[in-house]
Amino acid sequence: MLKLPRPPQIEQSKLNMWVDESIWGHRLYDEQTPWLCILEMLCIVQSEAVSGKAFIEEEINKLHYSIYFRLHLRNILFNNPHIEAITTEYIDDVERWDAWMEEMAKSVGGIDSVDFSYLKSRFTSFDNFAEIVKFLQSSAIEGDSNKRWSSKFVFPYGPDCLYEDLRISGSNKTNDRRFFGRTGELAYLMLCRSGRGAEILDYLQKMGIIASEYASNYRGSKWNQLVIALQPDRDRLEKRPSGSPPYLPYASLPEYVSLADDWLSILRCKLPDYDALPHLVTITGLHLVVYLLNRAKAVLQDNQKPRFVLEIVAPKKTNIRDLAANEYETNNNLPKQAIEYYILSTAELPEWQQCLESLSSLDDARDLLEKHFVWQDKSANSPDELLDKLCADAVGRHKQHLAKFHGTWSKEIGLSSRRSSRRTRYAPTDALLKTLVLACVPYRMEFQEFLARLYEKYGFIIGEKQAQSFIDSGDADREDFTANAIRLERRLASIGLLKRLSDACAYVQNPFASEVPNATSN
Amino acid sequence: MKEIMAQSLSYPSSEWVSFLRNYGPIPRNDNMYDETIQRASKRKKIQPPTFETTYCSELIENFQSVAPKSIILTGTAGDGKTYYCRQVWEALGGSPEVWQKEAKNKWHVLTLQDKKLVVVKDLSELTTEEKQTLLPHVAMAIAGKSSDKVFLIAANDGQLVEAWADTEKSADIENVRQVIENLLVEDRREQEGFNVKLYNLSRQSSAIIFPLILDAVLNHSGWACDSCNYQPACPIWENKSRLEGTATDRTARERLTNLLELSELNEMHLPVRQLLLLVSNALLGHPDAKDKLLSCKEIPAILDKGKEPLASLYRNIFGENLGDRKRESTEVFKVLRSFGIGIETSNQIDNILIFGADDPEIQPHYDYLVNSDKYYGANLRYQAQQRSYLEGGGEDNRKGDFLKALQTQRQRLFFTLPNKYTTDLKLWNLTAFQYAGEYLNDVCKALQHEKKLPKIIVIRLVRGLNRIFTGLLVNNENELILATSGSYSQAKISRVYEKFISVAKDRGESVSVELSTNRGKPILVVRFSQDIQPASFYLTVTRYEYLSRVAEGALPSSFSQECYEDVLAFKTQVLKQLRLRRQTEDTEEVEESMSIRLLKVNNDGIASPRTFEVNI
Q1: With an 8 Å Cβ cutoff, is B157 touching chain A?
Q2: Cβ contact (<8 Å) for B562 and A501?
Q3: Across the interface, do B161 and A446 touch by the CB < 8 Å criterion?
Q4: H/E run at residue A463
Q5: pLDDT tens-place string over residues B8-21
Q6: Do B156 and A503 touch (CB under 8 A)?
Q7: Which chain A residue's Cα is nearest to B600?
């Protein structure tokens, strides 16, 4: 399968090499958590929806969109420590407004000429205003984290809630790609290339998050209107065009379709309100982790798909815990191994041989490496030394961010855990299990079939049938895995997702099944 | 032979007792359970205890009728599937010898009027080839395509569904497989258009069967203790008498039946085999006996060493006589121990047990409840341990001994505390379910006799639900608060007001506790209007306890994660029905200004909606 051509503007950009990006795209970024990835994606979807191009990639790897700032809203919600004090200190409404606006004028960020007076006509009292603010703060994304205030996000109730992550200093605002690191852009492209975009867009519009028919008089859901109320009219128009486009190496991959299919499975459950969102966040996180490992294995020419031994947490330490920790470690190292292999395998290329045989071997080698990896070096003294230096540089760079992607993301989605253990291992949380049931079980599925499905889709090994290779090699007994599967049964039953008949037969049930013959109450 | 005769003379009940041991937790091959009992019964010439089984007459009637349907018996091991098969076989004229002799046959055939009845006593015993031969015929009979044969098949749930997977596919087989799966999962007896009835023997209530089993054992003709020399002192005799009770005092068996009923209401089913095991162990258990079950000839030695208190009925009920592993792997003890009897307690009760002998204020209680029972209560051993504990300065294992003895006393007290004291001394504080007594008497019994529930119970349940639904410490009791979080359901706190549903009947709305129509168990029902389907929530003992505790101050995420999830799932259901009602009412309010309503909680903990208006 042919990789898409590298974008032409790389040479002018700040990137000092093109290695990680060539394998996984530009880019997957560890500090952008799954929620922030989805938020970035939603910004793009909304922008494209307005121009009728949602999930349609007209030109490969040339994505451009518009994105909003909404700084008044963000200052009110996340840069507003005085509001509580002012509400209690003053009794008269006029005084409260005045005092508050005075305080805000002093500490506001990213706005040139500060004027919050528009709020007075929107809310019947300062107290009302304060309550609404408190309410929106309680449902914010990253609201409790110690991230900078400009990296906190109001819940995405609708189009007027979407904005980009920024760095604010004084009245300056810059997109430093600190937390919107383009992972959302990649996820967006994946959905574009899955061919399922139209149906997904339909559901997102039904949820009220996206609106193709967006104009300045758009109102949307009750919550979107609440967020509109906190913004001056001009903030709803002020946007900027995105910069250089992202790069996703392959035009089509089964991973894109799997991601989209899981999105649709969850959306088809027709969960109430915005309930589907946390599940979409989790499942996207899972798919990107699998994508990371798939691409790494492809580079390493390893045909066996990535696998994850999942320990269903037991009260006492089991063999499974060790195996799960081992697999975690193995997977964690795969991307780095892929990079090393990718670079060092340049030595196998005929062009490299030619360089070695030429008279100006060092220069030729330098040119070759610059051509392939957009990397320059003046210090090495031989082609081999050059290659080693490139490898060391690449690994060093890789370790700063992409090497941490697997660890950070698997923790965020509830796939890995360090609970009661020295080593991190794969141990799914209840929330992840719920998402998996919604994504994999259309209505009702026999338990063993469910385990087989998890293995087929994600490489999850929980029960003995999928663990044959471990049993054969003597790393674990059949009983260990059987007990592991029984624990999963109990976990699922305790969160209401499994119905156990009295003997060996158990059914995993999706409580929001789209096909329900007869809805039985408990 | 002479020795056995001699034994029978000095221990008149010994043959029966020795037979009874077969039902207890002795090491054995469980697959041959029914056969083992049959053989022992023949050998000792003792009739096994018999009692009326729930469905037997129905099954026999079916096969004697003009158009009999095939019957599938399912349930866990020990529910009595093989037993039922044999009963039906013999009732329809089948010969017991044929059944016994040809025990190796996988199925038996009996000729009824114009059909053949094929009885398969255990589907899992069939090889793949045998299933492939048999199942197509079964499918034909059930689908109504053939009428010369009719079937009685016993199978465990899992095997029932799996068995069809191996047979060749045909439209009939696929249809029949789907029907059986539906009947199983949806808990139904039959499906129109198919000649099959599914009897799930796990549905037999152990609370109803247990008294029958108990009587069958206690009244068995094999008891001949009256002519035994060891009679008044013998612990087996002591246990039997206590379990029987007197005309005025049947507390022990009542309490035990209560525990079984509560287990059943908590979806923990105990098959007949486990109940027989319980009775056998209760009567005969002793940690020093062979296989931990007494036999008559061991009695003199036990009495000599003064070890009879260890045969306490009240310990045996919880399997204390057994080793840890055996106990933990025996279903009935796992279920009964889940009540925590022996470990749970209250200050009041422990004061009586520990200080009662010396404290003049509580001494009357101590005398009445503990001292009066010299056999299993305040016997010499207990008094010595109590003394040693109170005087202190003993080694640690002395303290450990007393604490173990204290556990036994708590267990005893649970079964002996007279009904007139259960409220004042809070009997159910001896279990993990403090509200279980109220649940059984004021809820279940009241509902079964169509009486009204005390208002305070519904109020408490509503308060518990409100606290979990909102995540706030609210005290509202006249209305059920429906609130959302404004973002997603998984959020902990829900402040966005949706609706108050009136607890008292009001324009179609109500919150009440009723008996469910299909299983006769208590459910909490929330009604929205005449036309909308109500939302219901099964009140198992655990859920009842959970809601009550949350109402009285426990945090929703403590006590039981499972219950918390259950209540949240119920909340989703309730909100769904509310939306349905809103759709039918079709009240579209076009407002110039937009408003949202958030819950505010006042100083008394009463939540009420406050409207916030916004103009854009």
Answers
A1: yes
A2: no
A3: yes
A4: none
A5: 567 788 889 999 99
A6: yes
A7: A131
Bridge partners of A141, per DSSP, are A153
Cα end-to-end distance, chain A, whole Å: 51
CA–CA separation, B539 and A367 (whole Å): 76
Find the CB nearest B566 among A228, A446, A496: A496
Given a cut of 90, whether residue A466 has pLDDT beyond it is yes
CB A41 within 8 A of CB A188: yes
Task: Report the half-sphere exposure of A144 (CA within 13 A, side-chain side).
Answer: 2
Q: Given CB atoms, is A277 within the 8 Å cutoff of chain B?
A: yes
Helix, strand, coil % (nearest 5) of chain A? Answer: 55, 5, 40
Q: Is A502 in the B-facing interface, judged by CB distances under 8 Å?
A: yes
Residue of A126, A228, A219 lying closest to B590 (CA atoms): A219
**3-state SS class at A275:** coil
- Is B186 in Cβ contact with A522 (below 8 Å)? no
Nearest CA distance, A54 vs chain B (angstrom): 24
- Cα–Cα distance, A415 to A424 (Å, whole number): 10
Q: Which helix (H) or strand (E) holds B199?
A: strand B196-200
Please tell me if residue A225 touches chain B, with a CB cutoff of 8 Å.
yes
Average pLDDT for chain A: 91
pLDDT band at A522; cut points 50, 70, 90: very low
Chain B residues closer than 8 Å to A122 by CB? 614-616
- CA A499 to each of CA A244, A444, A447, B271: distance values in angstroms, whole numbers, following the listed order: 51, 10, 9, 19
Crossing angle (nearest 10°) for helices B81-91 and B56-64: 40
Rounded to two decimals, the ipTM of the complex is 0.82
Interface contact flag, A522 B616, Cβ < 8 Å: no
Give the residue, A501 or B545, on which the prediction is more confident: B545
Q: What is the pLDDT of residues A234-267, one digit of tens each?
A: 999 999 999 889 999 999 999 999 999 999 999 9
In Å, how far are B11, B37, B48, B293 from B45, measured between CA atoms?
17, 12, 9, 21
Mean pLDDT of B306-322: 92
Q: Does A233 touch chain B (CB under 8 A)?
A: no
Contact B186 A511 (CB under 8 A): no
B561/A522 Cβ within 8 A: no
Q: Is A278 in CB contact (< 8 Å) with chain B? A: yes
* C-alpha neighbours within 13 Å on the C-beta side of residue B449: 9
Residue A521 scores a pLDDT above 50? no
pLDDT at A142 over 60: yes
Residue A478 makes CB contacts below 8 A (sequence gap 6+) with A464, A467, A471
- Rounded CA gap, B394 and B401, in Å? 11
Q: How many CA atoms lie within 13 A of A423 on its CB side?
A: 16
- Alpha carbon distance A32, A20 (integer Å): 16
Closest Cα partner for B126 from B148, B107, B111? B107
Token pair 């009604």 is found at B527
Q: Is the pLDDT of residue B516 over 70?
A: yes
The answer to whether the Cβ–Cβ distance between B486 and A135 falls below 8 Å is yes
The mean per-residue pLDDT over the stretch A20-25 comes to: 94
Inter-chain Cβ pairs, chain A and chain B, closer than 8 A: 120
Confidence class of residue A504 from pLDDT cuts 50, 70 and 90?
A: low
Q: Give the range among A302-306, B27-31, B299-303 with minimum mean pLDDT.
A: B27-31
Residues A323-333 pLDDT 10s: 999 999 999 99
